[in-house]
Amino acid sequence: MPDWERIERSDEFRELVKRRKSFVVPATIFFLAYYMGFILLAGYASDFMGESVYQGLTVGYCLALTQFLMVFVLGIWYLRKSENEFDPLADKVVEAAAEAEDARFVRKDEGTGVKA
Amino acid sequence: MVSLFAEVNVEALVMAAIILAITLGITFWASKKASSAVGFYAAGRQITGRQNGLAISGDYLSAASFLGIAGLIFLYGFDGFLYSIGFLVAFLTVMFLLAERMRNAGKYTIADVLSFRLNETPARAAAALGTFAVVTFYLIAQMVGAGVLIEKLVGINFSLAVILTGVFMLCYVIFGGMVATTWVQIVKAVLLMAGIFMMSVFVLAKVGFNPVELFNRADANKGPDSTFSLAPGTYLPKPLDTVSLGLALVLGTAGLPHILMRFFTVPNAKAARSSVVWAMFIIGFFYLLTTFIGFGARAFLGEGGVEAAGTGGNLAAPILAEFLGGGEGTFGGSLFLAFIAGVAFATILAVVAGLVLSASAAFSHDIWSSIVRKGKDSEHEEVLVARIAAFAIGVIAIIIAVIGGSGLNVSFMVGLAFAVAASANFPALLLALSWRRFNTTGAIVGVVTGVVSSIFLVIVSPKVWPGADTVTGSPIGWTLNNPGIISIPLGFLGCFLGTILSSGKPSEHSSYDELFVRAETGLGSERALEKVA
């Protein structure tokens, strides 16, 4: 078994967790706030949401479209960020652990069809 | 037999038969791969990210999403669209907080993650309770919905339709396990996207591919007493109810056992991550197109279509398809109607198969193998028990759906399933993965509080008390239909108080450090079966 406690305290692991957190926490706060803001407007400001932007196109529908946009952008952004930043850091943790533990636990990293 | 097949729609029946033939073929092919535990529960972890993205979409987009949301938009306009937004944004919650970490830490069920560093027996029991509660409401809702729709679309009797759906669902799960379930979901996702894309093109072609013109016509086509509006507040008149529903939708998906179980079918966390993004794009595109179907139905069928569309407007999409194909009685009209009816049928089958599989895994893997047999059973026995459990769960669901009949309110039960998932499963899973102090007592108190509070608040809600559109309908004066805004914080509070007020120590077989490192890096995570050429 790998020495989990030692890995948890290692600089590589701390760095990975810190970097990932510094993206995931603000992103989660942002999307929940943006979504709940939309829901609050839908609940409490239905007149505003029903106002026309251009003929039958309402403020509500436009704001709804921005929710879709937010999901797609955050999805792709996180995918990129993970491949370029978090995955290499995680690999480092695994490598360091493997060196220390006689390479018994190697992370499987194949068959995803996604290139880093 | 006359009463059973009174007005059978032959084209729709042929379409359904084609879909059944394809899916049974898949099941036969899959049956050889489903004999081991990892094959039966997790398709050997050989599903790619893209395939899993399609399968998640197939697992997630129920008939309530397809026919239900199109129908709600047709009847109420903007409020129907609010559901779509919640269902979609929910995948950000799944992606950021659970998907990869579940894949890295778990094996077959959500209980694997919850019990990783807690006392195994009570933690698995709590997770199984959460799974059964969600699956029960969701499955019965889907079965009743299936019966109603097939009765209307194909023309066979409600009970017969429920039984047929149940039998095919059981065939996929029992003989083909996760491999068959996955491919049935993939086929369904492709069919569903093709169907809704075709309909959208037809709808947009009628307004010169100008969506604004579609909204104009839809708005012009509401009668004087119409519930339809381009502004919110028609279907969900109480603002606080809207907020409560929105909260349950955005957090509920991250507690749905049949969706989370899909992350165990891919080889690693990277594939889990890419499958969520694939699912987001497929599901997002789908929900954008449902607005064209809903507003299109309003623009072209108008107020006159309201009665034909039935309860909740569920038949608006099929009727619109008939209209787009050339109208009632024309060859094109019945063909398009039959195609959409077939797609709806495939949609239901894929969702119920995923649900039954997750519940049977919770029984065989968590209750039978880990709690009753203390891990001393063979793999063969566990898979056999899973098949028997799937059979029993399926039969019970069929019986409840047939007895409850078409009067059971489908959207109400789906809402309840999301509320339980968000209030019971989600807080416990999230805290197990990210809070060092979290302990067994916290998990049990949290899950039980979440399940009990959400079910209780629904039982006393105005929806259950007839004549309750006034404030005083509920026996305790409760006025919200959606429990989320109370039950979700209660679920978290239960986890928190249970943890800090007990002296419970984590179990000794593994530490939080182990779970944390595994979840974040994938070190020591369950490996995929080698591909056999």
Automatic annotation (TrEMBL), chain A:
Keywords: Membrane, Transmembrane, Transmembrane helix. The chain crosses the membrane at residues 23-46, 58-79. The keyword Membrane applies. InterPro entries: DUF485 (IPR007436). The keyword Transmembrane helix applies. Coiled coil: none annotated. It comes from the Bacteria. This is DUF485 domain-containing protein. The lineage of its organism: Bacteria, Bacillati, Actinomycetota, Thermoleophilia, Solirubrobacterales.
